[in-house]
What does this fold into?
Amino acid sequence: MIDESNRYGMMRVVEANLMDEMMDTLKREFGEIRFLEVGVCGAGTIRGVYRRAGEIGCPVKGAGVDFDFYRPNPMPGENYEFHAGDSMEMWRNIKGAYNMLLIDGCHCVVHASQDFLNYAPFVETGGYILLHDTALPKSGVEQGDWPQDHSYAGKANSKLGVREALKKLGLLDSRRTDFQFIRELESDSGLMGMMLYRRVLPY
It folds into this structure.
């Protein structure tokens, strides 16, 4: 069940707990949080990042990519950049390095794959990538159709393909050597779920 009043927006409590844990990890390992988000939609997650940074006394810099009608209003805090447009194009505007990337944009296979390929290079060695909506329902072997109003594919129903994208990218079976699998939060609904990776080799 989704808790809409959760501290990171549209995340389950267990996922929000992982987010809190990751913010603490970034402070401990880097001394600051540099958070890049693909798919801002409502800005609940980035507001949670700034909230947690304030709680633990950690400097924070944030950046988000999404269409202009998802622009946070008001902005979540200082040192935040919003890049309005399709994530397939906006990567060209990103500057600098980040120690955490959250990919939660369009969930079709093509976009989920491209978001990883386009934005992973901005994650520094030792930094983390967290992908949302990776859940595989217990009753099936693939993710199914689900309404996606924010789908860049322009469909009312798009096949959830985040997990298939991870498979094609070589992240599910550890064929990639540049990213190490850290943890998965499962869900039996076919929605939600998270997979966490760490960059272990430079780009």
